Amino acid sequence: MSEDLLYQQDGAIVTLTLNLAEQRNPISDAIIDGLVAACDRMNSDPSVRVAILTGAGSAFSAGGNVKRMAEANDERRRNPIGTTQYYKRGIQRIPLAFEKLEVPIIAAVNGPAIGAGCDLTCMCDIRIAGASARFAESFVKVGIVPGDGGAWLLQRAVGFSKAAEMAFTGDQLSAEEALACGLVSKVVPDEELMTAALALAKRIAANPPQAVRLTKRLLVEGRHSRLDTLLELSATMQALAHTTDDHREAATAFVEKRRPNFTGR
Fold first, then answer.
1. Is 61 exposed, middle or buried (0-12, 13-18, 19+ CB in 10 A)?
2. pTM for this entry
3. Between 2.40.128, 1.10.3470, 1.10.12, 1.10.10, what CATH number should domain 209-256 receive?
4. Whose CA is closest to 41, among 29, 51, 31?
5. What is the pLDDT of residue 67?
């Protein structure tokens, strides 16, 4: 994995760090490849129960590299079909990989999350912000649209009206404004951000990992499924959950009034 993205595992928790601090963590090609590979790696590793995504330095992510956009402008104008493929084979791989990610992922937003950086937080299941965090769906400010799925992601986080306001104006939200509209679930002092994210990750990791992975899949499917379709899927997944050793252990521990010991089986 590239040094642009750090993959660090401590027990059941993986921390992914966007590691281009001097550039405010733009979404580089290496970060795209790294995030997709990290999702595949976590899906195939049963020891991983939860992940945290954050940025190095004072920013979460500045989003797209506007300087590179300016340099590529003539090529984009000459070859729109090529631009379509550039997005499909590039940044659009991230939301598809995150949608398939089986373990919960928490965005620990440590500073500005702008444009694609804002959308990257929306790809995560839970968002916690440091007090200095800022959010902007700012594509319109540079004359483009959210090409990374933001038009789908943002409104599912804050509702259509607020998403429209953010996308049409490109204005920034403070951490407290993001909390008020539901974009984040908690705001903490900057110096407490990773402590809070790790505490939440540990609470998730303490639960039966197979049940957590199945629950995440139901929540993801529930964003676009009909009720009857989701009920059918829920029944099937519930049948699988009932076969696990962890379910037996949870029920036995409840009856015996003791703490359960989950093994992931």
1. buried
2. 0.94
3. 1.10.12
4. 51
5. 73
